[in-house]
Amino acid sequence: MAMATDNIHGQVRPAAQAGRFYEQGAAALRKEVAGCFGNGGQQDGRDDVAALIVPHAGYYFSGEVAASAYSQLNPGHKYGHIFLIGPSHRVWTGGASAETEYAYYTTPLGKVKVDTALCRDLIASGSVFDYRPEAHEGEHCLEVQLPFLQMRLGEMPPVVPIIIGTDDITQLRKIAAILKPYFTEENLFVISSDFSHYPSYEDACMVDRRTRDAIMSGKLGVFVDTLESNRQMGIRALATSACGESAIATLLLLLDPHYRLHHLMYRNSGDKGHYDRGRVVGYHAFAVTREKAFYLTEDEKQALHTIARKSIELAFEGKSYSTGELTETLKKRCGAFVTLKANGRLRGCIGHIGEDMPLHVTVSEMAKAAAFEDPRFPQLQREELKDIRIEISVLTPMKRIHSLDEFELGRHGILIKKGHQSGTYLPQVAGEVNWTKEEYVGHCSQYKAGLGRDGWKEAELYTYEAIVF
Length: 469
Hints:
Elements: E1 11-13, H1 26-39, E2 49-54, H2 59-70, E3 81-87, E4 96-98, E5 102-107, E6 110-113, H3 116-124, E7 129-130, H4 133-136, H5 146-153, E8 159-164, H6 169-179, E9 187-192, H7 201-216, H8 220-231, H9 245-254, E10 259-268, E11 282-290, H10 298-315, E12 336-342, E13 345-352, H11 359-372, E14 388-395, E15 399-401, E16 413-418, E17 421-425, H12 437-448, E18 460-464, E19 466-468
Parallel strand pairs: 1-5, 2-9, 3-8, 3-9, 4-7
Antiparallel strand pairs: 2-11, 4-8, 5-6, 10-11, 12-13, 12-14, 14-19, 15-18, 16-17, 16-18
C-alpha cells in the first residue's frame, strides 16, 4: 500500500522521559541500552519479524526484557515504517489517536521522523482515529521504545505513533481493520505493554503465566476471557493483568495462520535487587514472525518423484542415489511421507515428521523405508517396482495449537506429543473416513500416540498441511 511521507520540517517533540525512565545523556543512554542488550538474550537478528510486544517501564526494571525482543530484529533489515502502538495512561479517548502535531520525536540519541501524513491518512480512514494531543503529551509507553530501536537498527525508518484509549471490542476491530493494509512485510509493529500491576511476586508470576498462555493462543477471545478470569480471582492488589490490553488485542485481530507467536522472556520488578516483592509489576516480551508460504513447483515435485524412485531402484544394487543440483526448497528441512501403491492398493507407507533433515534426504530415506521396512508388508521385490505408483506428501512447518478450534478437518494433519510418545494422522486420512474432528484426533491419540482416546487433551498438539502429489 502506498504511503505518503511529509517532506516539510516540523515541530520536534522533546524527550519527556529522559532522566526518568532512561538515562538523560547520550553516552550514558548508549551504555544503558547496550547493557540491556548484553543481558537480554540472543543477538542474532531475523528478517521475518512482523511485530513485537515489549514493556515500557524504566529500563532498570524492564530493559533486559525489552532488549530480548529488539534483539530479534536484523540490524540490516530495512523497514518502511515502524508503527508504535500503546495504551493511553492519561486520558480515555474512545478510540485511537495518531500523532499529527510533531514531525519528529527526539531522544538523547537523536531525532526520529514521524510520518504525520500517514497519521492523517489513518484519521481520514474512519471516525475511530483522531488526534488527541493530551493522549501523547508526556506519554511514556511509545517514547521509551525509541532508544532501543535507534541502537538496534541504526538508520531509523519513519514512525507512526498511535495511542489507543478504549477497550471496546467494536472500536478495536475498527482500529485493526484500518491498520490491516499496513501490516505487511514492509513494516514493523511495536506493541507497548506491561503486565500484572501491583500484586505480590508469587501472584504476579501466576497471573502473568496465564496471560502469556492466552496471548500465545493467538486468539482474541481467549485473551479477553483470561483477563476477565484474572480479574475475578480476587488477587490482592491486582490492578490489571495488562495495561496495554487494547494494543495487544488490536495485534491479535491482525494475525492469521501465517503468523507465529514466540514468547521470549519474563521478569517482574521483584527480580531486581532488593525491590519490594509484595508489590510488583510484570514484564513479558514476545515476537510475532511471518511465515512465507511453502510451495513446490512442478519441476520440484517431479524431482522428488525421481529421487524416490531412483533411491528404491539403486537400493536393490546396494547403492545410493546422487541428487545433483537442488533448489533451495528441496534443501529446506521438513517432513514427508512416501506411499507406495500397487494396482491401487497400499504396498507401503513410511514418513518422517521431524524438521531435522533436508527434504530431498527425507524423501529418499522414506522411499526406501516404505519399500523395505514397512512391517505390514514383505520387502518390495525388484520385479514389482514397474507396477508401483509413488505418492509423496510433503509436510509444511509444524504449528503449535491450543484448541481444536484452530484445527481444520481435511486441511490439517495432527501431531500429538506427550513425553516420548507421539503419533500423527495425515490430512488426507479425513477423506478416507467419516469422522468428526474430535474422532479424528481421538483415534490418532489412541492408536498412533498410544495415549488413549482422550489423552490428546493433556498433550501437545501441532498442525501441518500436506502437499500431496
